[in-house]
UniProtKB/TrEMBL annotation:
UniProt keyword Zinc-finger present: no
Keywords noted in UniProt: Membrane, Mitochondrion, Mitochondrion inner membrane, Repeat, Transmembrane, Transmembrane helix, Transport
Family recorded in the similarity comment: Belongs to the mitochondrial carrier (TC 2.A.29) family.
Ranges occupied by Solcar repeats: 1-90, 99-192, 202-293
Membrane topology note: Multi-pass membrane protein
Main location, first listed in the record: mitochondrion
Protein name from the UniProt record: Solute carrier family 25 member 35
Length: 298
């Protein structure tokens, strides 16, 4: 049940934040491996990107990749949040009755690694679908998938089972860093808010406030890994499934830093917060409330 509750909470958040995931993906691919001023800017900021995509690709364009996005959230966050809930229930994250920062970071990272490996194939497809656009505003490599099943079938047929895990070298550090940051700050923030008695201990405002505090730290820590992950997943590959732009996580990170500077690794930061911020807040809030409801019904 811990795994199901984690997955359902993340899917509920995904319904609200998927359009921002589309915006974030496009902004992270814009000007890939090009110096500032040498490429056409289709998306000036998160609001302009939202308007442009809606105008050119239609409202449906803002929900591209929703189906694989929901599958990804259910499997990845179901495993990640479910694993963490089990670890938390076993009282591993506490030392002398208090939340241990070190233990929550280790537990969050470990849960993130498992979730990243499980969800990598659908994240690959989600990235491909969200980057697909009308040629007039297209950025990054353009795959021609007709949907999630079609994409999975094509990738498997061309590159075998391992091809479905292409890009996972970036997904593992991305999710482990994000998970460690998110769950450690959420647990610590909840404890702090309860200690300060800002709200009653069982109030839904405790989880909501802790999620807000966690979201800021998550976005700052996770965005560079998110940019690298998006680019590795979306890069064109040869007939052997080998990437034509990057050899792996380290190569992508160094090339982006060299060509685009530190700001290249933080491309789409505004979009990242508008997406990751609400998603972090909503998924943690839904997760916490669903767990409390389940405990009451047991």
């Amino acid at each position: 049940m811990d795994f199901v509750l984690g997955g359902v909470a993340a899917c509920a958040a995904c319904l609200f934040t998927n359009p921002l995931e589309v915006v974030k993906t496009r902004m992270q691919l814009q000007g890939e491996l090009k110096s500032r001023g040498t490429y056409q800017v289709y998306y000036r900021n998160v609001f302009h990107a939202f308007y442009t995509i809606g105008k050119v690709d239609g409202l449906a364009g803002l929900q591209k990749g929703l189906v694989p996005g929901l599958f990804y959230q259910f499997f990845m966050n179901g495993v990640r949040l479910g694993s963490y809930a089990i670890i938390e229930s076993a009282d591993y994250i506490h030392t002398n009755g208090r939340v241990s920062a070190v233990k929550t970071i280790i537990a969050g990272a470990a849960a993130g690694v498992v979730g990243a490996v499980m969800g990598s194939p659908v994240y690959l497809v989600k990235t491909h679908l969200q980057s697909q656009s009308t040629s007039s505003i297209a950025v990054g490599h353009q795959y021609k998938h007709q949907g999630m099943i079609h994409a999975l079938r094509i990738i498997y047929r061309q590159h075998g089972i391992l091809g479905l895990w292409r890009g996972s070298s970036a997904a593992i550090p991305r999710v482990s860093v994000g998970s460690a940051t998110q769950l450690s700050t959420f647990s610590s923030s909840k404890e702090l808010i309860i200690d300060l008695q800002v709200f009653p201990q069982d109030s839904w405002l405790v989880a909501l406030s802790a999620g807000m505090m966690s979201s800021v730290v998550v976005v700052l820590a996770m965005t560079p890994f998110d940019v690298v992950s998006t680019r590795l997943y979306n890069q064109p590959v040869n007939h052997l499934g080998k990437g034509q732009l990057y050899n792996g996580f380290t190569d992508c990170f160094s090339k982006t830093l060299k060509k685009e500077g530190l700001t290249g690794l933080y491309k789409g930061l505004g979009a990242s917060y508008f997406r990751l911020g609400p998603h972090t807040i909503l998924s943690l809030f839904f997760w916490d409330e669903l767990r409390k409801l389940h405990q009451k019904l047991r």
